[in-house]
Amino acid sequence: MKESRKTATGARPRDARIGLRIERRNTSVGGHHHAAIPDHQITLHTGPPVRISCIPKGPRCVRNRGEINVVPAGVSEKWIEDDASDVMELRLPAPLVRLAAEEMGLDPDRAGIVPQCHVRDTQIEHITWALAAEQGANAPNGLIYRESLGMALAVHLLARYPAPAAPRRLSQSQLAMVTEYIEAHLGEDVSLFQLARVSGLSASHLRALFKRSTGVPVHEYVIQRRVERARALLLRGDLPASQVALDAGFSHQSHMARCMRKVLGVTPASIVRSRA
């Protein structure tokens, strides 16, 4: 299986400002592999019909001139061609698609594109040829023209081939702010509403998104972190167990013991003995 190699015809390097790239390529008979990449890829078949079968065990079919494949970012594919082919390949950067989603009022973290195989889509075909003509003429219409075509393509893909919305999660920055706040206030009575203010969400949204992001409810996460802090303090050995319980945020020593047995399966006394 060989990587799908490109033979550019008059192609320029990727535009560093908007990331669009378009090029012609010719593929040979045999197996091909498109590795997952950060860009969305659109392939327009421009040559005679080609007999193709997907791997593994995909149906054999014929790809005709004008048919289009859409491979979203992060998706790979393998196929076998019984005939050499001519295609126009367009790479659409993920940041541009995110921007298009925002312009459409969609959540860019959830909006996506469904893969398409051998479809007819005159709008994609027209945009692809327009970009190819602009590139072949050394971009006389400028960056705004190429940006407009790229944005139009991204909007069309999101509108016509939308992926089911992925479950929303906390952003990396939101999760970091919440967990850092918890660590800094473990010895206190941590409030869900204060965590919600830290994250910029409502309490109900934070509760749902925190569990989706970490796999555990926020109150269980707090207990787990308190247990880990209590364990570290007990192993340090310079505080009595009653003070460790308070410093770790437990209401009393027996509360710490119950939580420690539940989370770690051991008692505070066994942790103290393990220091010896």
Automatic annotation (TrEMBL):
Keyword Signal: no
Keyword vocabulary terms for this entry: DNA-binding, Transcription, Transcription regulation
Ranges for domain HTH araC/xylS-type: 176-274
A Pfam match: HTH_18
Cited Gene3D superfamilies: Homeodomain-like
Top-rank lineage group of the source organism: Bacteria
PANTHER family named in the record: ARAC SUBFAMILY (PTHR46796:SF6), HTH-TYPE TRANSCRIPTIONAL ACTIVATOR RHAS-RELATED (PTHR46796)
Name the UniProt record assigns to this protein: AraC family transcriptional regulator
Organism: Pendulispora albinea
